């Protein structure tokens, strides 16, 4: 499972596109943790690229708030509480502050059926 960060980076690395270069950074570092306990390199704090810190919050939000074949979706208030609890350990506290300031927009995404979100 942890190899997906390396494989994703390998696929995207070397592009001349700045956007794809950022995507390669995100692929590589989106499972790093603010406290250094993540993978693949154990980066800590601001050593983790900002793009990856932002994507980590979005990735976990969607993983928790969406139903999957192996789990039920979390209630949004539980997702919000998880972010509050993990700010400064798993996540960049400034990224968490930013998402919490816009929580109503996040909640709106999950109040619309996913099938309709992709069409709009």
Q: Any overview of this molecule?
A:
The chain is an all-alpha fold and 120 residues long. Helices cover 59% and strands 0% of the residues. The chain has one domain (3-113): Hypothetical protein af1432. Helix 1 packs antiparallel against helix 2. The relative contact order is 0.11.
What is the rounded distance between the termini?
A: 32 Å
- Kindly state the mean pLDDT as a whole number? 93
Segments where pLDDT lies below 50 for 5+ residues?
none
What is the string of helix and strand elements? HHHHHHH
Q: From the alpha-carbon coordinates, what is the Rg to the nearest angstrom?
A: 15 Å
CATH homologous superfamily placement = Hypothetical protein af1432
List the helices and strands and how they pair.
Elements lengths: L2 H10 L5 H12 L20 H16 L10 H11 L6 H9 L1 H9 L2 H4 L3
Short summary of the structure?
With 120 residues, the chain is mainly α. The chain has one domain: Hypothetical protein af1432 (Orthogonal Bundle).
């Amino acid at each position: 499972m942890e190899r997906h960060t390396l494989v994703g980076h390998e696929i995207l690395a070397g592009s001349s596109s700045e956007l794809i270069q950022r995507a390669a950074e995100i692929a590589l570092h989106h499972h790093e943790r603010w406290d250094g306990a993540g993978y693949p390199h154990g980066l800590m704090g601001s050593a983790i690229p900002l793009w990856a810190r932002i994507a980590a919050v979005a990735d976990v939000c969607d993983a928790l708030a969406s139903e999957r074949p192996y789990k039920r979706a979390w209630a949004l208030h539980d997702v919000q509480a998880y972010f509050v609890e993990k700010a400064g350990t798993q996540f960049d506290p400034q990224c968490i502050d930013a998402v919490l300031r816009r929580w109503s927009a996040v909640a709106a995404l999950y109040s619309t059926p996913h099938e309709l979100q992709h069409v709009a």
